[in-house]
Write a structure and sequence with these properties.
mainly alpha; 5 helices
Length: 95
C-alpha cells in the first residue's frame, strides 16, 4: 500500500484536500517541539550543530504554507525511491 501511495504522489500532484491534514499537523508540531525550556535549548543547540539558522522552525512553517501540489509532487519524485523500500519485522525467529 505504501509503495502504491508514493508512486501515485509521483505520478500526479495531490489534490488540495489530500494535504489538508498534513499541513496543519506539521505546523502544530513546531510550537510543541519547543514546549519547555529544555526543548528550546536542545532545538537551538541542534540547529547550531547543523549550521541552520536559529529561526529555522519559522522558516519551515512559511515554506509549509507556501507549498503547492506541484512542489509536493516534485519532492516525492526527487527524494523517494519506492522500489528501494524494505520491510523490517521484529519478532521471534521463524521456525
Amino acid at each position: 500500500m505504501v509503495v502504491g501511495e508514493i508512486k501515485a504522489m509521483q505520478a500526479a500532484p495531490p489534490r488540495r484536500t489530500s494535504s489538508c491534514g498534513s499541513r496543519p499537523l506539521l505546523l502544530r508540531q513546531i510550537p510543541l517541539n519547543e514546549s519547555s525550556v529544555d526543548d528550546i535549548a536542545h532545538g537551538l543547540l541542534g540547529r547550531v550543530d547543523l549550521g541552520l539558522p536559529l529561526d529555522e522552525p519559522t522558516i519551515a512553517a512559511r515554506r509549509y504554507i507556501e507549498l503547492g501540489p506541484v512542489e509536493v509532487q516534485a519532492a516525492f519524485r526527487k527524494w523517494l525511491r519506492p522500489d528501494d523500500l524494505v520491510r523490517v519485522s521484529e519478532g521471534p525467529t521463524p521456525q
